[in-house]
Amino acid sequence: MKIVNLRTRDAGVTLRYRCDGLSLTLGDAVMIDTETGEEIAFVAQEPYVENSDEEMPFVKRMASEKELDKYYDICAKEKEAFFKCKELIAARGIDMNLVDSEYSFDMKKLTFYFTADGRVDFRELVKDLAYAFRTRIELRQIGSRDQAKLVGGIGMCGRELCCCSFLNKFAPVNLKLARAQGLSLNPGKLNGACGRLMCCLQFEKEAYDDAHRRLPEPGARVRTQVGIGVVTDVNYIEETLSVKFVSENETEIEKYSWAELEDLNQDMAKRKPSGDSGFRDYPDMNGAFDDDDE
Fold it and tell me: What is the CATH classification number for the domain harbouring 278?
């Protein structure tokens, strides 16, 4: 099947639709059916062919000039609605931060997105908005991550935020992921535009989990071609170890690729319990070598 990723807003989630029989390019406007009715959407990625049994809706047709004009008119009205809503919020003295406003394509529904520290009683505000706009009003409280997805922006990597470019679901992110990747626990470097831990910490989790299962941890003793040493540092991306050798006169640190040492340490890997994240936590690791091993 031929699939295209679409977006109904400048930022936000992308939608997968089938576009068999249509020749689409990046930025083209099309009409689609959504849960809220017919909407206009724009091609966010060039169509591609995929063998999939997933059921997904079809793109209805290319958007006409009239529909495009209506879309731009709606965008202008959304800006007006946004500022009007801010005025009404200030007049009511409600502690909430308005993030965005969105009309449905048939203009029968107007949704306002906002953030707040706690629960907000906006019943009187809804009445004010319904009177001002004469349409169905919905106020939706969102979190900081959803706010970043709606507003968009550039991450510290220099690319568009993942949440408003391709990330459709928020996976749980915690400090364990940063520790596993050897990152400094500095909020200024770990937090994204939303003020929460960056979603990209989750992207390499499987690779780091695999590396932690196979490679020794700092503090472990390993065999090398020149003898037994103690691991002082591990680079899980390059899969290299810094190994310290202590003699009577001096201390030396050498860098090794794990590929060079893996065969020499296979017996230890076999003795390591399943599910262990590294040699360091293995209770018998310090006694895994004896003097004859040298």
Answer: 2.30.30
The string over 69-104, giving b where at least 16 C-beta atoms fall within 10 Å of a residue's C-beta and e elsewhere, is ebbeebeeebeebbeebeebbeeeebebebbbbbbb
Separation CA 10–CA 44 (nearest Å) = 9
At residue 294, does pLDDT exceed 60?
A: no
Q: Tell me what percent of the residues of the chain surpass a pLDDT of 90.
A: 28
Summarised one tens digit per residue, pLDDT across range 102-130 is: 999 999 999 999 998 888 888 999 999 99
pTM of the entire structure?
0.66
Residue 48 lies in domain:
2-62
Instruction: Please give the tally of structural domains in the chain.
Output: 3
d(CA 276, CA 7): 43
